[in-house]
Amino acid sequence: MTACGGGEETTPSPTTAAAASASPTTAAAASASPTAATGSPTPATPSSSEPVRVGAVLILTGDFASLGRSLTEGMEFALDEIGGEAGGRPIEIITADSSGNPEQAINKVRELLQRENVHIITGVTLSNEAAAVRDIIVESETPWVISNAALSTLTRDPALRSPYIFRVSYANGQYDAPLAPWAYENLGYRRIVLTTLDYAAGQERLEVFRRHFEEAGGTVVDEVLAPLHTQDYGPYLQRILQADADAVWAWYGSADAVRFVTQYAEFGVRDAFPLFGGGELTDEAYLDQIGDAALDIVTSNNYAPLYDSPENKAFVEQFRERYGHLPGQLEYQGYLAIRVIAEALDATGGAIEDKPAFLEALRNVQFTGPMGEFRFHPETQHVIMKVVIRRVERLEDGSLGNVVIGEVPDVDDLSY
After folding, report:
1. E strands in 233-339
2. Is 406 helix (H, G, I), strand (E, B) or coil?
């Protein structure tokens, strides 16, 4: 994997309002068919010796750099698995560091398109980054395989979805919605508190979970939102302790998850209310760092390294042999992004320059992966996933792991 531009800019953190003026518009709607766009280039004849250039927009510096590292490992692993080529052509991944900032993401996408002449874009980690770069990518008629950014409207909203946009990861709420009735029926929760990070993704996921929990018959007694990068959750936890509830649903990620879950136990809230929520609460990347405070937490996710399938066992074993740790959600999604691109290249004999044919091949990608059958929804071009319910337990070797205790198959992004 090679770098684009060096990521030299100094940018504000993702909590700034940099994305406000760069939100997607409805002018470039999904009706802009790749075969009908004016001024679109004539498909070139591919050269078997010319690499397929994949532009990967990742967060490699700043507060969310760990996310970029995990996605990079998954992409590298997939590239090695296929021998570095597909459809008879070598694949070159050119990385660009967005630093988690929408304005820098815009600059890096333009560099990849104009300077590096990439054939396809992947990556993009945060929802505000995806909102910022959406129109640029679509108007350039470049295929985009999203590997993390969960802005649900990109695929759910007919005005924003596009023939050029595919997503292999998840949309906000996609694996939160199935957990709501599951917790009501299997854990017996009737009255709960909801808590999350106070920004777009957290708010969107909270709203989805609340709606589905109430539809199942449950009651939400309070909602507690905390700012990104909160260091002391004491005031928020004290408020939760005052609730008349059976349990607490939470969605926190990365360093915020480590601090929240650890302090949840330290403040004694764990003794009062069981904690459950989104899979990022106990992601493998930092589960050991959380330690025993994570025990018994139930979460839903699109991936679990302990999921029992031959494909996943092989994936986990080979990944751990290379990197020395288990793959988590982000490594899995990075893997899927490159695997999907490779499958489409194989189907077209490497003719990525023939955009209508290549887009059709992407839409029809289907294979058995670590979590079972992979395929896209025909309308949204978003992955139809198997949602797994996991509980943190101590394993035989003494380590902690997210043990699968339930699953919900065939969850698409229009199902909630």
Report:
1. 247-251, 275-278, 298-301
2. strand
Predicted local distance difference test score (pLDDT) of residue 48: 62
CA 300, 303, 306 angle in degrees (round to 5)? 100
Residues of the chain with pLDDT under 50: 6-44
Indicate the DSSP class of residue 282. Answer: G
Contact yes or no for 2/76 (Cβ under 8 A): no
DSSP letter (8 states) at residue 206: H
The whole-number pLDDT of residue 1 equals 82
CA distance 358 to 85: 16
Residues 138 and 278 both lie in one domain: no
Residue 55 lies in a domain: yes
Domain CATH number, residue 205: 3.40.50.2300
Residues 294 and 355 in one domain: no
Query: Which of 67, 131, 37 is CA-nearest to residue 359?
Result: 37
* Same domain, yes or no: 323 and 393: no
Tell me the CA distances in angstroms from 414 to 171, 210, 212, 277, one per residue in order.
10, 17, 14, 21
Q: Identify whether the C-beta of residue 325 lies closer than 8 Å to the C-beta of residue 287.
A: no
pLDDT at 43: 42
Both 322 and 277 in a single domain? no
Count the Cβ atoms, other than its own, within 10 Å of residue 34: 17
Q: Give the residue carrying structure tokens 């999921």.
A: 307
pLDDT score recorded for residue 200: 86
pLDDT of residue 36: 37
CA 332 to each of CA 75, 327, 393: distance values in angstroms, whole numbers, following the listed order: 9, 7, 21
| Strand 372-375 relative to strand 366-369, pairing | antiparallel
Q: Is the separation of the CB atoms in 337 and 75 below 8 Å?
A: yes
- Residues 156-178 as b/e (b if ≥16 CB within 10 A, e otherwise) read beeebbbbbbbbbbbbbbbbbbb
- Amino acid occupying residue 22: A
**What is the model's pLDDT at position 2?**
84
